[in-house]
Amino acid sequence: MKVLVINCGSSSLKFQLIDSESEQCLAKGLCERIGLDGSMTYAPEGGEKVKKAIDMPDHTEAIRLVLEALTNPGTGVVKSLDEIGAVGHRVVHGGEKFAKSVVISEEVLAAVEECNDLAPLHNPANLIGINACKELMPDTPMVGVFDTAFHQTMPEEAYMYGLPYEYYQKYRIRRYGFHGTSHSYVSARAAEVLGRSYEELKIIVCHLGNGASVSAVKNGKCVDTSMGLTPLEGLIMGTRSGDIDPAIIEFIAHKEGRSIDDIMAVLNKKSGVLGLSGNLSSDFRDLEDGYNRGDAGAARAMKTYCYHVAKYIGAYTAAMNGVDVICFTAGIGENAPLVRNLVCGYLGYLGVELDQDANRKRGEDIVITTPGSRTAVMVIPTNEELAIARETVRLVG
Ligand code: ADP
Prior knowledge:
Blueprint: E1 2-8, E2 13-19, E3 24-32, E4 39-44, E5 50-53, H1 59-71, E6 84-91, E7 102-103, H2 106-114, H3 123-136, E8 142-146, H4 156-159, H5 165-171, H6 180-194, E9 202-208, E10 212-218, E11 221-225, H7 247-256, H8 260-270, H9 272-276, H10 284-292, H11 296-320, E12 325-329, H12 330-335, H13 337-344, H14 356-359, E13 366-367, E14 376-379, H15 384-396
Parallel strand pairs: 1-6, 6-8, 9-12, 12-14
Antiparallel strand pairs: 1-2, 2-3, 3-4, 4-5, 7-8, 9-10, 10-11, 13-14
Helix pairs in contact: 1-3, 7-8, 10-11, 11-13
């Protein structure tokens, strides 16, 4: 079956068409600045990537352009839309309602809408994408795959905050966690690559991209994760602060005479390694360059970032009473040997011994520790689109 995977943001839309039998991506692309001065990037497998400016007033128009590109006689990869058997949608927040992927129905849409409060930037956009597809492909089955679903197995002691219980009862304030599709895919893949049973392993996954989170996966189930009610909690990220003392918000608001909304924007957009480095960059390629040429801001950001990752690994080792495998994934986890080196420098107590040659490799599922290392460290490139396509086929195939 050919599955169209859609990841819809408020003004952007990423897509991939995946052949579920070969698990190959047939074409992929991105619509940006929807509703503004739109542009579309499209790349058929093995073909040239083309970016062009093109007006797209709304998401329905963006999806119409995607379907047109996929069926275009010149650059398309299918003859007609009938060849697309299903659509898989990434949905950011499923609250407590969705512990698994679901076939989208009117009831599901209403339940997703009820989670809008919990992810006001993401869920409404995801719903717009689903509705646009419904309009253009009314007879094609659709599946929603939730970023939060994999983490729904966390025990109460891992997901509750030390707040008045009534806030949980009234507003469902708790840890939900995100990047679940990636944590699930990477942990299962690590077991597969090692030829070990997923149900018998204690795995820590470090998903280090622009957004970053760590999760503890014990016997195939998530038992803790670093993002919380929102994706702001946990690790230091590209521009997000991660964990801070909550009293800092009031402190800065008073000192600088600014509103809570202003401070939240600082925590989301101006903090993380960008802020720590003194605005050098949020991109680890720049930070790595800076670190290597002795830039103090880059060194501060890099060291603080890696220290926090190592602290979470320690916490999750305790949560699982041990760890067998530590996985690095996503843009930084897959591509930054320096980050893996600095993090693993803290893991002597786990008997971690890095194989430096393996640590320099890229783009493959690989063990980067020596055969004698007591704990295995791996790099597993994530593939959220493939995971969404698999879930879609499992439900409608
Ligand atoms: P997201 O999906 O959260 O937007 P990604 O997983 O694509 O993010 O990660 C993007 C980040 O990966 C970039 O900001 C950059 O810091 C980092 N990155 C990408 N390539 C490299 C590289 N070659 N070396 C170091 N960091 C890299």
